[in-house]
Amino acid sequence: MSPASRCSQPASLALLTLGHPLLRQRSQVVSDPQDPPVQRFIDDLLTLMTTAHGVGIAAPQVGWAARIVVVASRPTLRYPDAPTMAPTVLINPRLVALSDETENGWEGCLSVPGLRGQVPRAAEVEVAYLDRWGQPRCQVWQGFIARIVQHEYDHLEGTVFLDRLKEGTDLLSEEAYQRLELHSL
User: Fold this and answer.
1) Which residues are CB-neighbours of 73 under 8 A, at least 6 positions away?
2) Cα distances (angstroms) measured from residue 99 to each of 105, 123, 151, 162, 164
3) What does pLDDT average to over the chain?
4) Tally of domains in the chain
5) For residue 108, which of 86, 76, 156 has the smallest C-alpha distance?
6) Is 181 a catalytic residue?
7) What is the model's pLDDT at position 148?
């Protein structure tokens, strides 16, 4: 499925926020990753993620129900201690294995502005996917990067991090989270 087959590509991408029905739909498989509209979309997705200070983004967050995710861990305003990795495009990702070990960590989301949640995630994840050029890949990620991958994969399944919270007390405003972080230094 090409994003162009769903609707015409906008001049610039805009983030959808919680409440938009597309954020709750399962995304469709991309049949031709090398299709020029798909490649332009990936470029735009990378640009938007960077300008929004994200460490990952999924196609449904900008209105296309395509199984495309970008993971690009790096220190940002929102995640100053994030490890650095090159931006990685995952097309039609499939979770091959999740470790039994889990870690709790604070997550935010570009589509859920102003909130952070304490979310349990597998400490390690193995993912099979097509790279940006349609080549099959399999990768194991750990820690914060594994968290990003799982968070973005959830978007492809119509899930947001709020769905994974164990307790109501595991949710904070961004302002309260920043105060908590300052006190933990």
Assistant:
1) 55, 56, 79, 82, 83, 84, 85, 144, 145, 148
2) 16, 6, 15, 21, 17
3) 91
4) 1
5) 76
6) no
7) 98
Among 101, 152, 167, 175, the active-site one is 152
Backbone angles phi and psi of 15, in degrees to 5 = -75, 135
DSSP 139-157: EEEEHHHHHHHHHHHHHHT
Q: How confident is the model at residue 3 (pLDDT cuts 50, 70, 90)?
A: very low
Please tell me the distance from the alpha carbon of residue 55 to that of residue 44, in angstroms, as a whole number. Answer: 15
**Which residue in 178, 183, 179 sits closest to 80, CA to CA?**
178
Residue 36 has phi, psi (to 5 degrees) of -50, -40
Q: What residues contact 98, with CB distance under 8 A and at least 6 apart? A: 122, 124, 125, 126, 150
Range of the domain at 81: 3-184
Assigned token pair, 182: 């300052």
The residue with tokens 């929004």 is 52
- The pLDDT score that the predictor gives to residue 2 is 43
Mean pLDDT of all residues in 143-150: 98
136 DSSP β-pair partners:
130
What's the CATH code of the domain at 117?
3.90.45.10
